Protein backbone atom coordinates (compact mmCIF):
# COMPACT_ATOMS: atom_id res chain seq x y z
CA UNK A 1 0.00 0.00 0.00
CA UNK A 2 2.68 2.49 -1.08
CA UNK A 3 0.28 5.37 -1.58
CA UNK A 4 -0.36 5.58 2.17
CA UNK A 5 3.06 7.20 2.48
CA UNK A 6 1.22 10.45 1.79
CA UNK A 7 -1.21 12.37 3.96
CA UNK A 8 -4.91 12.97 3.56
CA UNK A 9 -5.70 16.47 2.28
CA UNK A 10 -8.74 18.36 1.10
CA UNK A 11 -7.38 18.28 -2.46
CA UNK A 12 -7.08 14.51 -2.30
CA UNK A 13 -10.58 14.04 -0.92
CA UNK A 14 -12.06 16.34 -3.56
CA UNK A 15 -10.30 14.39 -6.31
CA UNK A 16 -11.63 11.10 -4.93
CA UNK A 17 -15.20 12.40 -4.94
CA UNK A 18 -14.80 13.13 -8.65
CA UNK A 19 -13.05 9.85 -9.43
CA UNK A 20 -15.59 7.64 -7.66
CA UNK A 21 -18.80 9.62 -8.09
CA UNK A 22 -20.91 6.84 -9.56
CA UNK A 23 -19.59 4.17 -7.19
CA UNK A 24 -20.25 6.46 -4.24
CA UNK A 25 -23.79 7.13 -5.41
CA UNK A 26 -24.43 3.39 -5.62
CA UNK A 27 -22.85 2.83 -2.20
CA UNK A 28 -25.07 5.49 -0.66
CA UNK A 29 -28.16 3.95 -2.21
CA UNK A 30 -27.16 0.57 -0.80
CA UNK A 31 -26.46 2.03 2.65
CA UNK A 32 -29.78 3.84 2.61
CA UNK A 33 -31.57 0.57 1.87
CA UNK A 34 -29.51 -1.16 4.57
CA UNK A 35 -30.56 1.46 7.10
CA UNK A 36 -34.23 1.08 6.14
CA UNK A 37 -33.92 -2.68 6.67
CA UNK A 38 -32.61 -2.10 10.21
CA UNK A 39 -34.51 0.91 11.59
CA UNK A 40 -33.31 0.31 15.17
CA UNK A 41 -29.65 0.37 14.14
CA UNK A 42 -27.65 3.27 15.58
CA UNK A 43 -25.79 4.92 12.71
CA UNK A 44 -22.60 6.35 14.18
CA UNK A 45 -20.98 7.83 11.07
CA UNK A 46 -22.39 11.00 9.57
CA UNK A 47 -22.64 11.14 5.78
CA UNK A 48 -19.54 13.17 4.88
CA UNK A 49 -17.18 11.20 7.10
CA UNK A 50 -18.71 7.91 5.96
CA UNK A 51 -18.18 8.95 2.36
CA UNK A 52 -14.59 10.05 3.01
CA UNK A 53 -13.88 6.72 4.70
CA UNK A 54 -15.36 4.85 1.74
CA UNK A 55 -13.38 6.95 -0.76
CA UNK A 56 -10.07 6.57 1.06
CA UNK A 57 -10.53 2.82 1.25
CA UNK A 58 -11.29 2.73 -2.46
CA UNK A 59 -8.15 4.74 -3.16
CA UNK A 60 -5.73 3.07 -0.75
CA UNK A 61 -6.93 -0.47 -1.50
CA UNK A 62 -5.79 -1.87 1.88
CA UNK A 63 -5.31 -5.58 2.21
CA UNK A 64 -5.90 -5.63 5.95
CA UNK A 65 -8.32 -3.35 7.80
CA UNK A 66 -8.96 -3.47 11.55
CA UNK A 67 -11.97 -1.76 13.08
CA UNK A 68 -12.01 -1.18 16.84
CA UNK A 69 -15.59 -0.45 17.82
CA UNK A 70 -18.63 -1.12 15.64
CA UNK A 71 -21.75 -1.06 17.87
CA UNK A 72 -24.53 -1.90 15.37
CA UNK A 73 -22.23 -2.26 12.39
CA UNK A 74 -22.98 0.94 10.46
CA UNK A 75 -19.31 1.81 9.99
CA UNK A 76 -18.60 -1.89 9.40
CA UNK A 77 -20.99 -1.99 6.47
CA UNK A 78 -19.46 1.14 4.94
CA UNK A 79 -15.96 -0.34 5.23
CA UNK A 80 -17.03 -3.68 3.81
CA UNK A 81 -18.82 -1.99 0.93
CA UNK A 82 -15.58 -0.25 -0.03
CA UNK A 83 -13.63 -3.51 0.16
CA UNK A 84 -16.28 -5.26 -1.92
CA UNK A 85 -16.13 -2.53 -4.54
CA UNK A 86 -12.35 -2.89 -4.57
CA UNK A 87 -12.71 -6.67 -4.84
CA UNK A 88 -9.79 -6.81 -2.42
CA UNK A 89 -9.04 -6.60 1.28
CA UNK A 90 -10.33 -8.12 4.51
CA UNK A 91 -11.75 -6.54 7.67
CA UNK A 92 -11.47 -7.67 11.27
CA UNK A 93 -13.85 -5.95 13.67
CA UNK A 94 -13.39 -5.93 17.46
CA UNK A 95 -16.13 -4.92 19.86
CA UNK A 96 -17.32 -5.73 23.35
CA UNK A 97 -20.81 -6.46 22.01
CA UNK A 98 -21.85 -8.52 19.01
CA UNK A 99 -24.65 -6.38 17.61
CA UNK A 100 -22.89 -5.95 14.28
CA UNK A 101 -23.15 -9.66 13.55
CA UNK A 102 -26.93 -9.24 13.38
CA UNK A 103 -26.97 -6.34 10.94
CA UNK A 104 -24.01 -6.55 8.57
CA UNK A 105 -25.24 -7.87 5.19
CA UNK A 106 -24.11 -11.41 4.55
CA UNK A 107 -23.20 -10.63 0.98
CA UNK A 108 -20.70 -8.04 2.19
CA UNK A 109 -19.36 -10.16 5.02
CA UNK A 110 -18.78 -13.40 3.17
CA UNK A 111 -15.11 -14.11 2.66
CA UNK A 112 -13.93 -10.70 3.84
CA UNK A 113 -15.13 -10.14 7.43
CA UNK A 114 -14.12 -11.55 10.81
CA UNK A 115 -15.75 -10.41 14.04
CA UNK A 116 -13.95 -10.81 17.36
CA UNK A 117 -15.90 -10.06 20.51
CA UNK A 118 -13.94 -8.74 23.47
CA UNK A 119 -11.64 -6.00 24.72
CA UNK A 120 -9.38 -4.63 22.00
CA UNK A 121 -6.59 -4.15 24.52
CA UNK A 122 -6.26 -7.92 24.85
CA UNK A 123 -7.46 -9.01 21.39
CA UNK A 124 -5.92 -6.44 19.07
CA UNK A 125 -2.14 -6.80 19.48
CA UNK A 126 -1.84 -9.96 17.38
CA UNK A 127 -3.84 -8.31 14.58
CA UNK A 128 -2.08 -5.00 14.22
CA UNK A 129 1.50 -5.77 13.23
CA UNK A 130 0.69 -5.62 9.51
CA UNK A 131 -2.53 -3.58 9.47
CA UNK A 132 -2.94 -1.22 6.50
CA UNK A 133 -5.94 0.80 7.73
CA UNK A 134 -6.97 1.18 11.37
CA UNK A 135 -10.44 2.52 12.16
CA UNK A 136 -11.09 3.48 15.82
CA UNK A 137 -14.52 4.28 17.26
CA UNK A 138 -14.73 2.67 20.67
CA UNK A 139 -14.08 3.86 24.23
CA UNK A 140 -13.78 7.65 24.15
CA UNK A 141 -12.10 8.02 27.52
CA UNK A 142 -8.53 9.26 27.79
CA UNK A 143 -7.19 6.02 29.21
CA UNK A 144 -8.25 4.06 26.13
CA UNK A 145 -6.51 6.55 23.87
CA UNK A 146 -3.39 6.35 26.02
CA UNK A 147 -3.36 2.59 25.44
CA UNK A 148 -3.35 2.73 21.67
CA UNK A 149 -1.12 5.79 21.48
CA UNK A 150 1.57 4.05 23.54
CA UNK A 151 1.05 0.38 22.71
CA UNK A 152 -0.31 0.37 19.14
CA UNK A 153 0.76 3.43 17.18
CA UNK A 154 4.53 2.93 17.63
CA UNK A 155 4.24 -0.54 16.07
CA UNK A 156 2.13 0.11 12.98
CA UNK A 157 2.60 1.56 9.53
CA UNK A 158 -0.92 2.47 8.48
CA UNK A 159 -3.61 4.96 7.60
CA UNK A 160 -5.75 5.73 10.66
CA UNK A 161 -9.23 7.12 11.33
CA UNK A 162 -10.38 8.15 14.80
CA UNK A 163 -14.02 9.07 15.38
CA UNK A 164 -15.68 11.53 17.78
CA UNK A 165 -12.74 13.92 18.06
CA UNK A 166 -14.19 17.23 16.88
CA UNK A 167 -17.80 17.58 17.97
CA UNK A 168 -16.53 20.98 19.08
CA UNK A 169 -13.74 23.18 17.78
CA UNK A 170 -11.47 21.55 20.37
CA UNK A 171 -11.93 18.24 22.19
CA UNK A 172 -13.02 18.33 25.81
CA UNK A 173 -10.21 17.86 28.36
CA UNK A 174 -9.52 14.35 29.66
CA UNK A 175 -11.08 12.65 26.60
CA UNK A 176 -9.80 10.40 23.87
CA UNK A 177 -9.95 13.30 21.43
CA UNK A 178 -7.79 15.51 23.63
CA UNK A 179 -5.18 12.77 23.98
CA UNK A 180 -5.07 12.07 20.24
CA UNK A 181 -4.81 15.73 19.27
CA UNK A 182 -2.02 16.21 21.82
CA UNK A 183 -0.17 13.23 20.33
CA UNK A 184 -0.61 14.55 16.79
CA UNK A 185 0.81 17.91 17.81
CA UNK A 186 3.67 16.36 19.77
CA UNK A 187 4.70 14.12 16.89
CA UNK A 188 4.01 16.80 14.25
CA UNK A 189 1.60 14.52 12.43
CA UNK A 190 -0.66 16.29 9.92
CA UNK A 191 -4.30 15.25 9.93
CA UNK A 192 -7.46 15.97 7.96
CA UNK A 193 -10.98 16.49 9.23
CA UNK A 194 -14.23 17.66 7.67
CA UNK A 195 -15.74 18.32 11.10
CA UNK A 196 -18.16 21.22 10.87
CA UNK A 197 -17.03 22.61 14.24
CA UNK A 198 -13.30 22.40 13.50
CA UNK A 199 -12.90 22.75 9.72
CA UNK A 200 -15.66 24.97 8.39
CA UNK A 201 -13.85 25.60 5.11
CA UNK A 202 -13.31 21.91 4.34
CA UNK A 203 -16.87 21.07 5.37
CA UNK A 204 -18.30 23.80 3.13
CA UNK A 205 -16.08 22.91 0.17
CA UNK A 206 -17.03 19.24 0.29
CA UNK A 207 -20.72 19.99 0.61
CA UNK A 208 -20.52 22.32 -2.39
CA UNK A 209 -18.77 19.59 -4.39
CA UNK A 210 -21.29 16.97 -3.27
CA UNK A 211 -24.12 19.17 -4.53
CA UNK A 212 -22.31 19.73 -7.81
CA UNK A 213 -21.82 15.99 -8.30
CA UNK A 214 -25.33 15.11 -7.17
CA UNK A 215 -24.24 12.91 -4.26
CA UNK A 216 -25.49 15.15 -1.45
CA UNK A 217 -28.70 13.27 -0.69
CA UNK A 218 -28.88 12.35 3.00
CA UNK A 219 -28.44 8.81 4.26
CA UNK A 220 -27.95 9.79 7.92
CA UNK A 221 -29.15 12.94 9.68
CA UNK A 222 -25.96 13.75 11.61
CA UNK A 223 -23.87 16.72 10.52
CA UNK A 224 -20.96 16.90 13.00
CA UNK A 225 -18.59 14.63 11.02
CA UNK A 226 -16.09 14.61 13.93
CA UNK A 227 -13.69 11.99 12.50
CA UNK A 228 -10.01 12.70 11.82
CA UNK A 229 -7.74 11.00 9.27
CA UNK A 230 -3.96 10.74 9.31
CA UNK A 231 -1.01 8.55 8.40
CA UNK A 232 1.58 7.17 10.79
CA UNK A 233 4.79 5.25 10.29
CA UNK A 234 6.27 2.46 12.34
CA UNK A 235 8.38 3.32 15.40
CA UNK A 236 6.85 6.72 15.99
CA UNK A 237 7.78 8.43 19.25
CA UNK A 238 8.00 11.92 20.63
CA UNK A 239 11.46 12.45 19.09
CA UNK A 240 10.33 11.77 15.51
CA UNK A 241 7.85 13.13 13.03
CA UNK A 242 4.99 10.65 12.85
CA UNK A 243 4.22 11.70 9.30
CA UNK A 244 7.69 10.59 8.31
CA UNK A 245 10.03 12.35 5.90
CA UNK A 246 7.56 12.35 3.02
CA UNK A 247 4.58 14.45 3.98
CA UNK A 248 3.72 16.26 0.74
CA UNK A 249 0.22 15.37 -0.47
CA UNK A 250 -0.37 13.67 -3.77
CA UNK A 251 -3.18 15.10 -5.87
3D architecture notes:
This protein starts with 9 loop residues before the first helix and ends in a 19-residue tail after the last strand. The protein has a single domain, classed as Rossmann fold, CATH 3.40.50.150. The protein is globular, with a radius of gyration of 17 Å. Strand 1, helix 4 and strand 2 form a beta-alpha-beta unit. It is an alpha/beta fold. It has 10 helices and 7 strands.
Blueprint of the fold:
Layout: H1 10-19, H2 21-37, H3 47-60, E1 64-68, H4 74-86, E2 90-95, H5 100-103, H6 106-109, E3 113-117, H7 120-123, E4 133-136, H8 142-151, E5 158-162, H9 176-186, E6 191-193, H10 200-213, E7 228-232
Helix pairs in contact: 1-10, 2-4, 3-4, 8-9
Keywords: Methyltransferase, Transferase
GO biological process, one term: methylation
InterPro entries: SAM-dependent_MTases_sf
CATH class category: Alpha Beta
Total count of domains: 1
Which CATH architecture is right?
Answer: 3-Layer(aba) Sandwich
Largest sheet: 7 strands, mixed
Portion of residues in helices? 40-55%
Question: Structural class of the secondary structure composition?
Answer: alpha/beta
Q: What is the rounded Rg?
A: 17 Å
Report the uncertain regions: 1-5, 236-251
How would you state the average pLDDT, rounded? 91
InterPro entries: SAM-dependent_MTases_sf
Protein name: Class I SAM-dependent methyltransferase
Organism: Amycolatopsis dendrobii
Keywords: Methyltransferase, Transferase
